[in-house]
Amino acid sequence: MTGARCPSDLALEGYLVDRERSPVAAHVSACAGCSAQIARMEAEGEHFRQYVFPATVEKVEAAATPRPWWRARAWMVPVPAVLLSALALVVLLRPQPPDRPADDYLGTKGGDAGALALTVFLGDAAGARALGDGERVPPTAQLRFTVRPGRPCRLWVVSADASGEVSRIFPTDGDGGARFDQGGALPGGAVLDGKAGPERFFALCAPGELELAAVRRAVSAAVGSGERGVRSVRVIPGLPDGTSQGSVLIEKG
Amino acid sequence: MGDRQQRAAELYRQWGPAVYRRCLKLLRDPEAARDATQEVFVKLVRDLEKLEDREAVLPWIYRVATNHCLNLRRNAHRRGEDHATADLELSSPEASPASTYPDRALAQSLLSRFDATTQTVAVGVLVDGMEHEEVAAALGVSRRTVARKLERFLEKARLYVRFES
Predict the structure, then answer these.
(1) pTM to 2 decimals?
(2) CA separation for the pair A225, A160 (Å, rounded)
(3) Nearest residue, CB atoms, A60 vs list B30, B45, B54
(4) Taking CB atoms and an 8 Å cut-off, how many pairs form between chains A and B?
């Protein structure tokens, strides 16, 4: 202690934002208690960046998007049954996409793309261990990932659960997929959402930029909603040629 | 990804740690703090421009996070969920010379019985050890309002304890 009153948490937050201009900088540098407090705050911030951010950023992004007019309740109007029947007929008669690959197809699409290996690690007090496909994990477990692509690519790691939600895991920001030249552990990780049920992680390595919206569309279309799709669909069809893939299923609960 | 989404993600990365720390302090549970941090930021990103005002953003997000987490505590208390109402870590007496320790202990046990603004004032002064001026600046109210709310809070709390005993 310096004898002066220790700054509040809010003042220390201000110090973390701009140490040089902070009015409490002199106190913090001379006060062992405040220095320890700053170290604790930095550790908590690091925990946020590693585990909380990757697991929650998607909902924050979604909240920043203005609600489209056609989803606003004010625009909902009754649709005559005849019109609904006509729409259903159009959907039924629409040309179907080509058959999707067999569920056990894994690795490459479009010929010469290199193989890809995705490994999911469960991080706990005892250290990290690789999970087997379909392995049961605590519903709030913290996970880390390694990806070994056969060649440089643009990487996405996403997950799909039984609610039909596709969650972005890596990269946590930007679009187009992360440039990924060499295999290794991905920065950050994911904290599971606490809901019991299956969740499948997909690593998708495209030869060029691949928009997240396209990834979401393809994963949603392939997996759909419900536990069956999550457990059975291992490969996402409809991605650019040369996209290599890997997937791992976990069972939460 | 749209521009607004990208900006929101960047701001979340930048300011999320401050929100998370605040929620962790008030909720005392990492899981609850994680969920609360996301919920707070979902509220904050509705006003992206305000969130990008670097000079003014910290007191604002601090206030929103505090209100949100105190609401969670109050709701959990009403539902009788003891785990969600773990004791708040009181500021040290020397850090909060304006109040005595019994006042601060009293504040902790009775906090959930008061409205959101009064709770925020009480937590700012009695739990965080903030000066009245600092609480006033963070809440965007006058120093006099802070003093008055705190005084009423302590008065009612003492009356309540006397009545109960």
Answers:
(1) 0.52
(2) 9
(3) B45
(4) 120
